[in-house]
Amino acid sequence: MIHFVLLVSRQGKVRLTKWYSPYTQKERSKVIRELSGVILNRGPKLCNFVEWRGYKVVYKRYASLYFCMCIDEEDNELETLEIIHHYVEILDRYFGSVCELDLIFNFHKAYYILDELLIAGELQESSKKTVARIISAQDQLVEAAKEEAGSISNIIAQATK
Amino acid sequence: MEQLKTIGRELAMGSQGGFGQSKEFLDLVKSIGEARSKAEEDRIVLSEIEILKRRLLEPDIPKRKMKEYIIRLVYIEMLGHDASFGYIHAVKMTHDDNLLLKRTGYLAVTLFLNEDHDLIILIVNTIQKDLRSDNFLVVCAALNAICRLINEETIPAVLPQVVDLLNHQKEAVRKKAIMALHRFHRKSPSSVSHLISNFRKRLCDNDPGVMGATLCPLFDLISEDVTSYKDLVSSFVSILKQVTERRLPKSYDYHQMPAPFIQIKLLKIMALLGSGDKSASEIMYMVLGDLFRKCDSSTNIGNAILYECIRCISCILPSPKLLEAAAEAISKFLKSDSHNLKYMGIDGLGRLIKISPDIAEQHQLAVIDCLEDPDDTLKRKTFELLYKMTKSSNVEVIVDRMIDYMISINDNHYKTEIASRCVELAEQFAPSNQWFIQTMNKVFEHAGDLVNIKVAHNLMRLIAEGFGEDDDDADSKLRLSAVESYLKIISEPKLPSLFLQVISWVLGEYGTADGKYSASYISGKLCDVADAYSSDETVKGYAVSALMKIYAFEIASGRKVDVLPECQSLIEELLASHSTDLQQRAYELQALLALDARAVESIIPLDASCEDIEVDKDLSFLNGYIQQAIESGAQPYVSERERSGMFETTDYHSQDHHEVPSHALRFEAYELPKPSVPQQASTELVPVPEPSYYSESHQPIPTSLVSERDSSEIKLRLDGVKQKWGRPNYQPTASSSQNTPSITQQAPNGTATHSDGGVGSSSSKPRSSYESKKPEVDPEKQRLAASLFGGSSSSRSDRKSSSGGHKPAKGTSNKPATIPRENPTPVQPPPDLLDFGEPTATSVTTIDPFKELEGLLDSSSSQDGGSADVMGLYSDGAPVTTTTTSVDSLLSELSDSSKGNSRTYQSQTSKGPNSKEALEKDALVRQMGVNPTSQNPTLFKDLLG
Question: Which domain of life is it from (chain A) (predicted)?
Fold first, then answer.
């Protein structure tokens, strides 16, 4: 199972964290500090896996952003690497050629997408289309809510005129 | 003008990917982004926390504002600060009817709260309500929250609803319901044990997503209890078959691979089901063979599946054909330039080597390369492989390498692991006792505080007991060498505590035994230890006990003891120590110094650490004394129980005798409530006649105190007596199980010739063939390779050579234990494994030993021929490597085939719309005031681009 997902920039800034196993806030900071120290200092040609405290951390760098996932000893590293890529592709499709800025300012959307992809540390959906469909359903609802709110406020505005 | 600007921004935000937050929030994110140090970032966050605390206290916050505050809280928490002051607002937001707000609320609580947080109880009600909602998106949001927040106690509150949702018309809901149940199962298996049939049902769901999700809980269930799912083997196999035949919708394809994540999950399950089950394995062979043929090893995901196949094959009952295919896949991995694939290859090798030990030989140089690679991860993986293939022929090389590596790293976690592995290997395969002790010294010296205390006790026992043979001379030599090595090490600064304990014990026990070192020399050293590590009470205790032994031996042998002044001052210091343990030891030492030789000898006899000490728990030796005392008019001892009974009867005459026990604490468990008749109820009021637990738990205490004290000196012998020295090892199983019968029959000189032949032919021949074909290989490496791998055909011989040539290295009390160690082979391998060795060897079990020997030699030489062939294959692998490199360049480009797949227009050279989008984004961001060039130009690079 995936214990946590971590997005860290090359400067070591945290862009997104999702914890599937219980960690206290203190442990979280420690984990982030420790891991970003290890991962950011690794050379480009080395393998994308780090053994860490009896777990394995699989990471991949996209532009200036590192995507890291912590998995169990017995999990398949290459598969996890592809789960990361899968996530990035979905983000890419959603944001339209995603860049780090999208994730900085829309981190909550990145969370929503991650929630459709992983649940309780397991991959729940491997079809990009299905994930995209459910995310857009949610977004449409949001849009509809906005319009509704807009029209109500219009009505109120007109009524109070 | 200002207005126009905001309108423009508003418009920009309306577009997809826009930033729907206020200026304030954007500024926050921006300033965090521009912070140059962690301290600056912290300062910004702290002031933001202050702002939010104030804002959240304001009355009537509009909902949209509230939502933003909550997202800001999430941001703060993400940066590692505590946002707990706002948790309650997030909880409140989940109650909102508006889905937009509700979703934000749920997101925030799932990120904020752990499952044991107090606030969860406030959410359960909302979750229950939302699970009943008509809107499936609401249900999904609630299910997401369930998967994070529901704990063991709250499972029953939502369980029935979740089960109902398994039949929801929307597949997204069914899928999440399955995942929620899976989560419940993980949290508390008993809570969902009656629902397991649902998982089976969902396996046949129309929607592949639901089916795929069901595999997660099934994997867990099957790993707990394989037998009850055997009936599903054929279903899994047929699902896998259908997946590989592309029967699933196209949308599940990933990089042109049909539903690879589902395939991997299925392979994992099959590995569980097929292990040790012949019929199940046979069903799988077909589809696994197909997978090897179909898998595209040019993509990462293809390799992921291949790797999973290798794992599966190494778990199920092996089939020669599949093993061959797996070996081929592994060699492709190892020859690849990608470190990832090398890593997987090493891992796969480690798995296959259990089944066919010869496979490693083909890849010796690749393995050596990985071992010397600068990549730490790869190095560690390789050490793991070496650990798996260690045998007595290569143990010295491997353990030396491991120790060198252990010294070089700082990571305590891994250091511990590798130290314990070194110890394990040394215990199991040590070629000589000398080597064993030296190795252990190194391990202790460099990782002493990390190894298990048992290891130290084992080492002490080893030195004390010798090696199970009645060869006192060798034993004393060993002890002397241990003493010498410790005297050399002892003055080094900062030795680990555990190591010092071992040193002190050995010096005390054997320091003067040989007469080479004088008592005052050793005792001086021990005093130095106690002084130098004065804060470590355990070490001090060991040192004082060692001193006591040394003086005792001196006194017993009739020599005059002159206590060194520093010892005297040490003893005096300890007499007043705060530690009662140290104090007692010091007093004992002082008392001992005043005794005569005979008394001392009976207290601490020479070299008696291996004798068992009988503890007389009844203290029967005091009987005479008691008798005497009673005769002279003393009161007989009244046990505590009787005493308390007497106490009651004498002092509480007036009270009803029956109620008395209620005044005492009761330690026994309450009886189970009986559906009782009134009379029974009244009898329960009668006191429980004996508070038996109480007395039992108290009686042994005095004796156990005594024994504890004793054991502080002889502890090492008492624990771990049952412990075995080594576990039977798996790799030589196939070969040596064929050979053990012959070995036991043969005369020792016969085996010697055989082993010589084996070693010579196997190590020299491949080397020469290598040199002829690959002249550029470093001879250093070759030597290493030969020392590591050369033994594989000789491994059959070195097992017994260790029993014949060297003494069986370690032993507890062990004349009986050595025998099982010599042929531990039948323990592990399932009989079918034998099929994979050389058939000749297996067939000749009961023939004339000499013939058999010939047969063995034949088989080993024929094997050499095979390995030479393999070398040939290896060297003419030039075309293969070129293909893999081209593959790798493909792989290394991040925008790989999928990209071309999903958005073909973009992967073309122009990238027109892409750059336009990027420009737009750039403009937008500039508008927002973020200056891209200042800090982080790469921010604007597409992640995939």
Answer: Eukaryota
